[in-house]
Design a protein that fits this description.
This protein is α/β, with parallel strands linked by helices. The protein is built from 24 helices and 14 strands. The protein binds nicotinamide-adenine-dinucleotide, (2S)-2-hydroxybutanedioic acid and manganese (II) ion.
Length: about 550
């Protein structure tokens, strides 16, 4: 016999007041709900009214999470109707507030798995318990050492995995019953959390090195064993681990790192969009990346890959990149370069006074970049003087201040348009309002990996991919071309989030096609579109 309360408390099957009379009879729900039977449309209207009654973004998020915890179909039905309004609430930037207040706000675990470095023998059991028999096809895992640009947030960081997964389903149609958010709790170096009596994670410093990598190995092996058809998405790992982990597993299992690769392909798509507006060639650009960490190096790698696809040798392509980090412009002899930075380090002999290039202003003056990307976590680093200097040597300077959340952005879109008298081609990490300047309305693209990863991940799952390789990532970057009308004054360099469901579908099909064509599908698939259509989940009862 069915237990009414168990059904009503299971968000994957609960329909609330939309259970029909026949269902109520069959499932022993008679009397466990008010008598009226509502349609999903009526439920959505009522829920949206409640959403609108909340004033603060965090209150709106808490309301939406309650709905998510109660009835996942209704949640995604509503999110599908209001995707532009809900994205910044369930995802970046408001997810940042919920991470900072995770302990205070904690109500329930939202079906996440919590892996503890102090309990390595229970890695498999933890995943199994959290999945509770569900057929998992998508795992988003974070160890939260580098949450957005906010640093180490320990177990609180699980909310980024939950938020990323919400976007996967809303944008691309991944079945929400087939996803698993995972927190790897390797400790935290965030003293505020360690001192907080309410902190819910392991109360010790972060563990690095052998013990850490053994845990990651164990985790990856358990995911492969329990969920062999799944895609493993890594998110917000620290600079010293993210690239190592990707390097180790990318040829062996279906995996990708969103901060390295997702960001790389959205920036490439944005640069291609910008060049479509300016009618310039990518091989004529000089790229300066400010903040050469996980994202900054990933972006440079993806752009370099594109230059090589256009026929340049590796040595020629590398000449187009200038990486600036805390030390200033990175040279071959700069101390403490990461392996990724080393690839792009310049030779001192290229510059007359290389020892003076120790900050962004000096580097911009010496390099005269045509494309400048910010992934530095340094708010306001793209100053008026620096932007004016850049714009003095570039007809249509391409400027993407990408650090998240909002308070960390290197510049505001509005300022960049003003300082360059409308010449800058701008994209930001979080949503930005249109900018009106001299009678033209400039639309600001959002260069956030959320534009790409839902389509990439969903396409890879639908095609039963063995791996996600460079060929597939490149195909995904190019899939956004042609959506924006580049001839309109003030056109954006990337398509608007309002169209994310449409273009995520296109990306998914392109990705599935690439996997099938390369013989990288685990199944004998031939039709990418059919495979994507078959895998797609839609929120309806
Ligand atoms: N828009 C997007 O899609 C997107 C994607 C990924 C990351 N990001 C943002 O990019 C930022 C960096 O993320 P990450 O994962 O690469 O972090 P990270 O820690 O790996 O890299 C940050 C880099 O910035 C450097 N840095 C710090 N202070 C600096 C300074 N004063 N001058 C120059 N460089 C400095 C650090 O040394 C490090 O190399 C974050 O704010 C993150 O939110 C945005
Ligand atoms: O989470 C985001 O908004 C994008 C990106 O993954 C980041 O770390 O900033
Ligand atoms: Mn991230």
């Amino acid at each position: 016999m069915n237990n009414a309360q168990a059904i009503l408390k299971n968000p994957f099957i609960n329909k609330g007041t939309a259970f029909s009379l026949a269902e109520r009879q069959q499932l022993n729900l008679i009397g466990a709900l008010p008598t009226a039977v509502q349609t999903i449309e009526e439920q959505a209207k009522q829920a949206y009214g409640q959403f609108q009654s909340k004033e603060q973004p965090l209150e709106k998020r808490i309301f939406l999470m309650n709905l998510f915890n109660t009835n996942r179909t209704l949640f995604y039905y509503l999110m599908g109707q209001h995707i532009v309004e809900f994205m910044p609430i369930v995802y970046d930037p408001v997810v940042a507030e919920s991470i900072e207040q995770y302990n205070e706000l904690f109500m329930q675990s939202q079906e996440a798995a919590f892996i503890s470095i102090d309990d390595p023998d229970n890695v498999e059991a933890s995943l199994k318990n959290a999945a509770s028999g569900r057929d998992i096809r998508l795992v988003v895992v974070t160890d939260a050492e580098g949450i957005l640009g906010m640093g180490d947030w320990g177990v609180n960081g699980v909310d980024i995995a939950i938020g990323k997964l919400m976007v996967y389903t809303a944008a691309a149609g991944v079945d929400p019953a087939q996803v698993l958010p995972v927190s790897i709790d390797a400790g935290t170096n965030n003293q505020k959390l360690l001192d907080d009596p309410l902190y819910l994670g392991n109360r010790h410093q972060r563990i690095y090195g052998k013990r850490y990598y053994e845990l990651i190995d164990k985790f990856v092996a358990a995911v492969e064993k329990l969920f062999p058809e799944s895609l493993l998405h890594f998110e917000d790992f620290g600079r010293s681990n993210a690239a190592n982990i990707l390097e180790k597993y990318q040829d062996k299992i279906l995996t990708f790192n969103d901060d390295i690769q997702g960001t790389g392909i959205v920036v490439l798509a944005g640069v291609l969009g910008a060049l479509n507006i300016s009618h310039e060639k990518i091989t004529d650009q000089k790229f300066l990346t400010f903040g050469a960490g996980t994202a900054g190096v990933g972006i440079a790698q993806q752009l370099m890959d594109e230059l090589m696809r256009q026929g340049l040798s590796a040595a020629e392509a590398r000449q187009h990149f200038y990486l600036v980090d805390k030390q200033g412009l990175l040279f071959e002899d700069t101390p403490d370069l990461t392996p990724g930075q080393k690839l792009f380090a310049r030779s001192r002999s290229e510059f007359a006074a290389s020892e003076t290039l120790t900050d962004l202003a000096a580097a911009v003056k010496a390099v005269q970049p045509t494309v400048m990307i910010g992934t530095s976590t340094q708010p306001g680093a793209f100053t008026e003087a620096i932007i004016k200097e850049m714009a003095a040597h570039a007809k249509r300077p391409v400027i993407f201040p990408l650090s998240n959340p909002t308070r960390l952005a290197e510049a505001k879109a509005e300022d960049l348009i003003k300082w360059t008298a409308g010449r800058a081609l701008v994209a930001t990490g979080i949503p930005a309002a249109d900018v009106e300047y001299n009678g033209v309305v400039y639309q600001i693209g959002q260069a956030n990996n959320a534009l790409m990863y839902p389509g990439v991940g969903f396409g890879a799952i639908a095609a039963a991919g063995k791996v996600i390789n460079g060929e597939t990532l490149s195909a995904a970057s190019h899939a956004l071309g042609g959506i924006v009308d580049a001839t309109l004054p003030g056109a954006a360099v990337l398509p608007p989030v309002a169209k994310i469901q449409e273009f995520s579908q296109t990306i998914a099909e392109v990705v599935a096609q690439s996997i099938i064509e390369q013989g990288l599908s685990k199944e004998h698939l031939t039709d990418a579109k059919a495979a994507v259509a078959k895998a797609k989940w839609v929120p309806k009862y």
